[in-house]
Amino acid sequence: MPISLLDTKHWWRHQNLRTLNLLMLIPLLSIFSQGFDGSMMNGLQSVTHWQTYFGTPKGAVLGVFNAAYPLGGIAGVFLISPVADGLGRRIGLATGAALCCIGAALQGGSINIAMFVISRVIIGAGSVIVSGVGAPYITEIAHPAQRSTATALFLTFYSVGSIVAGWCTFGTFRIDGTASWRIPSALQGLPSVIQLLFIWFCPESPRWLVSKGRNEEALAFLVKYHGEGDLQDPVVQFEYNEIQRTLSAEKSTAHSLISFLRELATGPGNRRRLFIMIWAAICSQMSGNAFVSYYLSPILTSVGLTSDLQQTLINATSQMLSWVSAIYFATLPGKLGRRTLFLGSLCFMWVIVICITAGSAMFAKDHSNKAAAYTVVVFLYLFSPAYNFGFNGNLGLYIPEILPYHIRTKGLSLFYFTQFCFMILSNFTVPIGLENIQWRFYIIFVFWIIVEFVGVYLLFPETKGPSLEEIAYIFDGPGSKIGSNPRSELKGNIQFVEDTNCDGK
Question: Which residues have a Cβ under 8 Å from the Cβ of 331 and sit 6 or more positions away?
Answer without folding.
Answer: 149, 152
